[in-house]
Batch of 2 targets.
Target 1
Amino acid sequence: MLSERRLEVLRAIVQDYVGTEEPVGSKALTERHKLGVSPATVRNDMAVLEEEGFIAQPHTSAGRIPTDKGYRLFVDRLAGVKPLSAAERRAIQNFLDGAVDLDDVVGRTVRLLAQLTRQVAVVQYPSLSRSTVRHVELLSLAPARLMLVLITDTGRVEQRMIDCPAPFGENPLADLRARLNSRVVGRRFADVPQLVQDLAESFDLEDRPAVAVVLSTLLETLVEETEERLMIGGTANLTRFGHDFPLTIRPVLEALEEHVVLLKLLGEAKESGGMGMTVRIGHENAHEGLNATSVVSVGYGSGDEAVAKLGVVGPTRMDYPGTMGAVRAVARYVGQILAES
Amino acid sequence: MLSERRLEVLRAIVQDYVGTEEPVGSKALTERHKLGVSPATVRNDMAVLEEEGFIAQPHTSAGRIPTDKGYRLFVDRLAGVKPLSAAERRAIQNFLDGAVDLDDVVGRTVRLLAQLTRQVAVVQYPSLSRSTVRHVELLSLAPARLMLVLITDTGRVEQRMIDCPAPFGENPLADLRARLNSRVVGRRFADVPQLVQDLAESFDLEDRPAVAVVLSTLLETLVEETEERLMIGGTANLTRFGHDFPLTIRPVLEALEEHVVLLKLLGEAKESGGMGMTVRIGHENAHEGLNATSVVSVGYGSGDEAVAKLGVVGPTRMDYPGTMGAVRAVARYVGQILAES
DNA sequence: ACTGGCACTCGCCACCGTTGAGTGCCAAGC
DNA sequence: GCTTGGCACTCAACGGTGGCGAGTGCCAGT
């Protein structure tokens, strides 16, 4: 078992290493932190910590650096979440207020988070799957061509072209529009398929094929667009990574471009409740390109339920308390903004 | 004046340097290219080229590398546009077909262009300013709350919430919707303000404030959203830049995140006609961060007029003929895709 | 006008000894 | 039984040195 002091040593190592980016030795440790013991003692503790796999030395006779396992212990037991300063909180509010539409909210959030943490920010668009239908609109563009517009309670709008098998008159169209809305407005996406199931039957025989196409397009939109979008920013911060560049950031940039990977990453981070913060460190990330990075993510939403995730991607050697504080604070404010609009 | 052979030497230098990324000397040149003269002669030519500012040496007794001015001459007079192979053209078509909506088209284009050129791709969304109105829709979300949906002929959809000063009945709403559409559908954005100018007057006095709000919101949307969006991709290709990393790619990544800068960059590239290809080399780019990069851009559009730009950003040391070929080919295919939809 | 020859420059690399931070171990002390 | 000071050892980093070779500029000869 690790004594209290050994944990303290680990904490000190993590803090120093995060600050200096250089392996930290026993002497420097005792000087910077009042551990109350001599370097020799610290050396013994370090030997134990190394044996247990929490720290490692890059090469013989260099200082120690934390391993992924060491960071994990640090995050789980040694570090809290550093709350933001009043000034920072004010900055967030100023930055986020004044967003005009959903794109703008997400865009501002990404920039804000990147700036605040000095890392790469990832913000998922509010997901459709948990939201409800605010309105469905059908527009006739040409005799046999419709446009379906779906509006969600998070302010998102999706549109689809529909080519009908046969021309579709204005009256049945208005009829369909009205009935469709009366059935699905305010309902959750997941419930929609069931709610429109028998809608086609109440139409004239000649119109049924067209109605069927409309309905299936609607369902398709609901399913397809549950596939989520996201926005990233602050990639320039990657250049602060290390000194051995191309090898380090190449795979990260590649991973960041594969939005599918990122979405999976955010999606998997669901432990400890929907709104809980998740920290995945180094090799805990399934994607190989992100094995040298940590991902801090948290759910956010307009209500008490999370509708999407946001987070940052940075080197495993990051300021976890600060980053977690910033991520959590931003998520809260974004939630507020969404709830207001 | 530069003799024919000197130009040939410059061309050879550019080609070799682009291939090897290393300064090229007189001996290597005569070996790889059949210039028909000895290294000594080439050395004399090089001395002249250097005096004229087309090439430079990184340090005494190293080979020469082209300067921005040298690349400029190469692009203007020595290099053509390399057409794509049949296989590449087929790949483009396969890749671009099957896009379901505008976002998808743009997204695929970015990935395609990045892959094809192995550089950073930038694609501007089809601009609203030159497009026409396909449909305007007004939805009643709550008694005094409307949603305005604007659909363009390029498939873009913009929406705005409107809070009315007073409740607005279904009938006047339908009326407004019908009249609005009859006036503006098929018209260019620029003409809309004039077309709806006196529309409010034909409504009942009590409804006029609401109508006025709707109209002003519409106009606002037209103006605001003429501010264009773009998508970028292939940033991982930046890691192939040079060996002296952080300094090189940092400013580029920063510039790429400032979409405003990129839009200006694309916007300025309008010489030689709307659809003409523009190449801006090194310091020709106003933005400092892009002083070590070249930008190859071209307009694309569904008709014979360009509605937006796309291009790539890469090191000044790039394969200009190949890049230009790829950019032009992609622009053409995207134009076709847009015209079909 | 082109060419071969020649002396010169200078970045690159491999080698080498020095330096210093950091370690592991051990015997003595609290 | 921890803790501590001492000590020998290791090894990355640094700076200097010398040889190598690619590349240049100049000049005299054809």
Target 2
Amino acid sequence: MARARELAGRTLAELAHRHGQTPPEDLRRAKGWFGQLIEESLGATAGSLAEPDFQRLGIELKTIPVGSDGRPKESTYVCTVPLTGGDGLVWEDSWVRRKLQRVLWIPVEAAPEIPLTERRAGSALLWELEPDLEATLRTDWEELMEMVCLGQLERISARHGTYLQIRPKAANSRALRWAVGETGERILTNPRGFYLRTVFTRQILRRHYALP
Amino acid sequence: MARARELAGRTLAELAHRHGQTPPEDLRRAKGWFGQLIEESLGATAGSLAEPDFQRLGIELKTIPVGSDGRPKESTYVCTVPLTGGDGLVWEDSWVRRKLQRVLWIPVEAAPEIPLTERRAGSALLWELEPDLEATLRTDWEELMEMVCLGQLERISARHGTYLQIRPKAANSRALRWAVGETGERILTNPRGFYLRTVFTRQILRRHYALP
DNA sequence: GAGGATCCATGCGTGGATCCTG
DNA sequence: CAGGATCCACGCATGGATCCTC
């Protein structure tokens, strides 16, 4: 947390320099760059997929791009959608809940008028999933996963879900995975991810900072 | 087959040059180099894991290192061992049989006194699994797979099997996979592969070339 | 605005095999 | 000698997310 608080107000150029990195021209070809820089800054083993330090602590790290008004500009990826359902339909055991139980949110300036290297990190927020938000997430997740298990995946659009939505998550739309079809048969479909809508992350930020 | 026959007598230097490649100093750090060069020479998409041309034809390609006497110097890797057994114990459906049903063998000189770049490819042999050899392979496979399924994997050493043996197959001995333990529980163990002993490949070469 | 599409880094597994001690 | 250990290449999946048209 000491390291996380120290990030507040630092520019991307500053953080990149600390870690001997050169910022990319823009984020079009390095979409995850900032998130990975924060990982390094906080002592997570850079690029270590299996065991970032935060998972040992039970803490998920998320950077969140905010506009000049402090509101989130993008949805937040949570995890992949299990397309073969089998893992049970119990919210308490779901990856979504496990990922969101405790999150260290790091806001970062993302207003287009600020040059990339001059954008600053904000105040870190160590947050735990609150009961009212969890109730809605749970309903979303149960409804979505029921459709997945019943083979209605193709009928799910990003419009389903209040806080949680399902959207494609892949290198491109040619990527395919096996899933359950309408009549229980195996079908090929694009891989999907769970995402948090900005209305969700906006609430979180609003509760803990003074924001519109 | 025209391309395969044309390889006979070519040196590794020659084949590498054709494909714009530079031979490694030795094979210690490039153990698969020659096999992959042959793949390219025969028009298999270089490095394409899923669908080499030969698999479309139902043909497996194997290079086989031979000493100055023409006898194989190394065992031949076939495929990984399914450690969770579940795929059934029917030889006819096994990956080992599918891989070995039709093989294009390409002998290559491997006598230590010949410098790597001057070693030559031999005459290609398009071979089909013969009934007498298959019978022994089948027995080996059934005995080994039964042990795997019964959780006796740790008791299998490379000494089991007449023609087919099970040996570790991994980047190193720290690599682990889930398998079935003695009492049916899940255990972690090193990944294994099926290998053909040299007595097997020696017989094949002997039947089709005049060899000791 | 946001749904659908896409992009980079990197770990892991498989396929190509040979190495190297006891 | 040969059983057990190891090495490189590369495809694929996942985790980091933002892009970019309707």
